[in-house]
Amino acid sequence: MINAVLFDMDGLIFDTESIYKTSWKYAAKEQGLELSDALYQYFIGVPDAACEQMLVQHLGAELDLQRYQAIRDKHFHALCAAGVTYQPGFTELFGYLQQRAIRCALVTSSGVAEVKHYFSGSPILEQFERVITSEDVSRGKPYPDCYLLACEALALPPAECLVLEDSNNGMQAALDAGCQAIMIPDMLQANDEVKRRAKHILAHLGEVIPLL
User: Fold this and answer.
1) I need a surface site. Which of 47, 56, 89, 180 has the fewest CB within 10 A?
2) Which of 80, 95, 122 is the last residue of a domain?
């Protein structure tokens, strides 16, 4: 039984992951450093603070983190100013859930400011019953804390909540929380553990509708 659908945001609802990657790599290059694709893969679905810790560990004393953050954020916001689009199938799926009165929550590794920015000018954010951001938990994905908090806020057992995620880290968080979980891969394909544990792996969000 599915009594609520919990949405990730970056890479699932919005096509933002490629923009994030471009800006993270740009800021490293600005300091004459390189952020490899192999390292960036570990950042997908993980809160910025944890990603920055990995970056510092990898690049060491050569990295000026404060300068890096400023350059990255400025570059990212400039790219976003051109517009961030919904991922295929999102509006159809969300409309279907609203018509069926299926409860919805947003569970993201981004902060409140980013959430409000992406949904600005749209009534969709107000239609989520609960919004859980990186600011609500001390441990982000791949830890299950954010999804456990969402289930608690909805007063539902995890087994009655369906999580939709685009990253392996997000899927691990959802599955370890005890939720049902479907992956719609964006920049990374499902790893072996996710393939084994996921309810489904789909091409786009519109494919979720027949499964509800």
Assistant:
1) 56
2) 80
Q: Could you list the beta-strand ranges (E) of the chain.
A: 4-7, 103-107, 130-132, 161-165, 180-183, 200-201
pLDDT score, position 112? 95
Predicted local confidence at residue 120, as pLDDT: 86
Residue 159 structural domain? 4-15+85-211
Same domain, 73 and 96: no
Q: What is the DSSP letter of 212?
A: -
- Single pTM value for the model: 0.88
Q: Cis ω on the peptide bond leading into residue 142 (within 30° of 0)?
A: yes
Helical spans, DSSP H, in 87-191: 90-99, 112-118, 124-127, 145-154, 168-176
